[in-house]
Amino acid sequence: MKRLVVLGGGESGVGAARLGKEKGFQVFVSDKNTIAKAYKDVLLNYEIEFEEEKHTASKILNADVVMKSPGIPETVPLVKQIRAAGISIISEIELASRYTDAMLIAITGSNGKTTTASLTHHLLKTELSAGLAGNIGDSFAKQVLNFSHTHYVLEVSSFQLDDIERFKPHIAILTNITPDHLDRYNYQFENYIASKFRIVENQTSDDVFIYDADDEVISDWIKNNPIQSRLLPFSLTKTIEQGAYFKNKNIVITIDNSQIIMPTENLALEGKHNIKNAMAASTVAHLLKIRKQTIRESLENFQGVEHRLEYVLKINKVQYINDSKATNVNATYFALESMDAPTVWIVGGVDKGNDYKELFPFINEKVKAIICLGTDNSKLFEAFGNMVDIIVETQYMSEAVKIAYKVADAGDNVLLSPACASFDLFENYEDRGRQFKNAVRNL
C-alpha cells in the first residue's frame, strides 16, 4: 500500500487526505499548527491518522508521495529534507486531477482569477455539469470524491502550479502578471512569471491557452518560450483575429469561422478590468458551444465575488466598498481607477515587496484621506505622507471605519483596498472583509 503524507490540515489538505484514502493510500496528515475542529472531525470520522502542532520527520520521510499545502514555502527545512530524500511533492490540484476524466478549465493570474473563474463557472453551469474549485470553495479533491462533473473550472495559484507534474487543463487562462508574492520567489520576478506559465507546460496542440494580449509580460514570455497549445488572446486595444477584442462597446469573439458579438452596456460588473474578465470567460463559453443567449444573460446577471469591489452600504450618502481581496498593488490600482468620487482609502497589512508608484496619479486625483491598517505602516507613510492632508494609522478595523465615517462627506466613497496580505491583523482576506462589513453595519 502506497503512503501519502499530507502537509497541512486545511481545506485542500483534508480533501486530499479523503481522496487518498478512498483511492487506497495509507494516509497521514501533519500540520505544524492546530487543525480547525471542523477538519479534525472529518479526519476522525474517516479514520485518517493525523498530528497537529508538530511535524514528526520519521512519519513523513517514509512517504511515497507528499501533498503539501500551497501555503508552505520551499525554504522550510522539512520540505528540503523531503526533496533530499527523493520523495515526490505534489499539490492538491495535481493529486485530484489524476482521479477525474472531466475537462479541466484552469485559471491563474496575479489579479482577476477569482472573478474570471466564478464568471466562467456561472456561464457554463446552466448548460453543462460544471464544478468550481481550486482556490475557491470546497477543494478540488473533495469535489472529485463527491461529484462526477464533466467539467471543472479551477482557480489556481502560482503556489499550486509550483507542485504539478502531469496536471493538464484542456483550457488554460492567464489573466495578467504583475509583481506579487515575490517574497516566495527570491524576489525574482522571472521566477514568478515562470511559475504562472506552468499552467501550459503539459498542454498539447489539442489544448487552448487564453491570455491577455495587452499584458507585455505575457506577450514577451510567449515570444521567447514556444507554447504547444492553441492561442486565443483577448485585448481591449488590438483587433484579434482568433480570440476576443473590444470594439464599439461590444466584445467580439472569433473562434474558427464562428463569431459572436456581445454588448457590454448591461454588464453587471463595472470597470475595464471586468471587460477583460468577461472576454476570457465568454471565450471559454463560446469554445464549449454555450448558446449566445445564455452567455449574454449570464454576463448581465452575474453578481460578482465577495470582497472584490463589493458595495456594502450607503450611510449619509457615503458609499462603503469592500475590496479586501485586493492583496497586491495591481488589484488596488483597478479599485482606485474605478472610483468616481472623492475616496477615503483604507490600506495596509503585510507588504510583499510593494512598489506604490503606479498608484500616485490616483492618490492626487481621487484620494482625500488615507487610513493605514497594519502592524507596520512606515512604508505607506513614506510613500503617501506628502500626498494627502489626512493620513492616520490604526490596528483595529472598527477604529479604521469610525475614522473614515468622520472624515467622509456626502457623495464620497470609503474604500477598503489593502494592497497587502492580511495575516498581520486578520486570519485571511475574508476575515478582514467581514470585519469591515460588520464595522460598517455597526456605525
From TrEMBL:
Keyword Translocase: no
Reactions catalysed according to its record: UDP-N-acetyl-alpha-D-muramoyl-L-alanine + D-glutamate + ATP = UDP-N-acetyl-alpha-D-muramoyl-L-alanyl-D-glutamate + ADP + phosphate + H(+)
Record's keyword annotation contains Cell cycle: yes
Pathway connected to this protein: Cell wall biogenesis; peptidoglycan biosynthesis
Enzyme Commission designation: 6.3.2.9
Signal peptide positions (record): none
Domain of life: Bacteria
Location relative to the cell: Cytoplasm
Span of domain Mur ligase central: 107-285
Broadest EC class assigned to this enzyme: ligase
Keywords, alphabetical: ATP-binding, Cell cycle, Cell division, Cell shape, Cell wall biogenesis/degradation, Cytoplasm, Ligase, Nucleotide-binding, Peptidoglycan synthesis
NCBIfam families: murD
PANTHER family for this protein: UDP-N-ACETYLMURAMOYLALANINE--D-GLUTAMATE LIGASE
Family: Belongs to the MurCDEF family.
Role according to the record: Cell wall formation. Catalyzes the addition of glutamate to the nucleotide precursor UDP-N-acetylmuramoyl-L-alanine (UMA).
Full protein name: UDP-N-acetylmuramoylalanine--D-glutamate ligase
Organism: Winogradskyella pelagia
